[in-house]
């Protein structure tokens, strides 16, 4: 029986599939929900607050860097958690 991969491993196709639970990327979320929330860790617009941030990322600064709760708050998020052809732990950087 052949192995069935649910997602494409090709660049543009993979990027289109690596989105949040709503199936939208950040630009599409901003247009649909009309919000301009900025992720406090990455300082990038994240309207649905669903962008993945690796818990050991150096993007955590100050009090957020020393807080276990803050470090794992964005770790479970699905948007950007499986960048293809990358040695980085996530698309959000490590």
Properties at a glance:
disordered C terminus; globular; 94 residues; 0% strand; mainly alpha; single chain
What does this protein structure show overall?
This protein is mainly α and 94 residues long. The chain is 28% helix and 0% strand. It is built from 4 helices and no strands. The protein has helices at 11-17, 26-33, 62-66, 68-73. The longest helix is centred in the first third of the chain and has 8 residues, at 26-33. The protein is globular. The protein starts with 10 loop residues before the first helix and ends in a 21-residue tail after the last helix.
Quick one: how many beta strands? Answer: 0
Distance between the first and last residues' Cα: 37 Å
Q: What is the H/E string?
A: HHHH
> Helix count?
4
Low-confidence stretches: 90-94
Fraction of helical residues: 25-40%
Describe the structure in brief.
The chain is mainly alpha-helical and 94 residues long. Helices cover 28% and strands 0% of the residues.
Secondary-structure topology with pairs:
Blueprint (H helix, E strand, L loop, with lengths): L10 H7 L8 H8 L28 H5 L1 H6 L21
């Amino acid at each position: 029986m052949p192995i069935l991969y649910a997602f494409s491993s090709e660049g543009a196709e993979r990027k289109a599939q690596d989105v949040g639970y709503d199936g939208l990327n950040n630009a599409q979320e901003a247009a649909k929900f009309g919000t301009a929330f900025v992720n406090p860790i990455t300082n990038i617009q994240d309207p649905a607050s669903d962008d993945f941030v690796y818990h050991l990322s150096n993007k955590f600064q100050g009090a957020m860097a020393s807080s276990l709760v803050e470090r794992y708050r964005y770790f479970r998020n699905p948007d950007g958690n499986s960048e293809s052809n990358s040695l980085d732990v996530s698309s959000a950087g490590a």
